[in-house]
Model the fold of this input.
Amino acid sequence: MLIYFTNWGVILTWLSFVFFIAAHLQTYFLTGSPCVTEYNQLVVVTLNTNLWKWAKVSYEAAIVSEVVIVVVYWTLIYGTYEYPDPSFFLIDIASHALPLALLLIEFFINAIKIPRNHYVLMFVFIGVYNIVNYAATKIMGVPVYAI
Done:
């Protein structure tokens, strides 16, 4: 359900990975090599293609979402309910911590730089989710998150 921000974050995380994989494959097939050696250091080749642009924009939205999700969930929401089964704790970790961990690893692998002019887009994205959350709360008659 898209009323939960966690689901938005997970979808964006996997979408950014799909775009990065596709962009790396495109680079490999167009240049013949995924990386070059420059000054005795391995440098990842990136082409200025739409795939790279989509990969970076989806990554930016995903990383901001996941930081918000991890901070809000583990400080405000976690512990407000009982687990029906101990295995649900693993599901909590997989959906509320693992995506951020993977995105941080991706940050260091691809040396992603987030331009300052994209910060506004990230806040707009968070604002869109707040509108969805507000609408869902009004339609259902109860808050999406009971905190």
Remarks:
- The beta strands are 35-38, 41-44.
- The radius of gyration is 18 Å.
- Residues 5-138 form one domain.
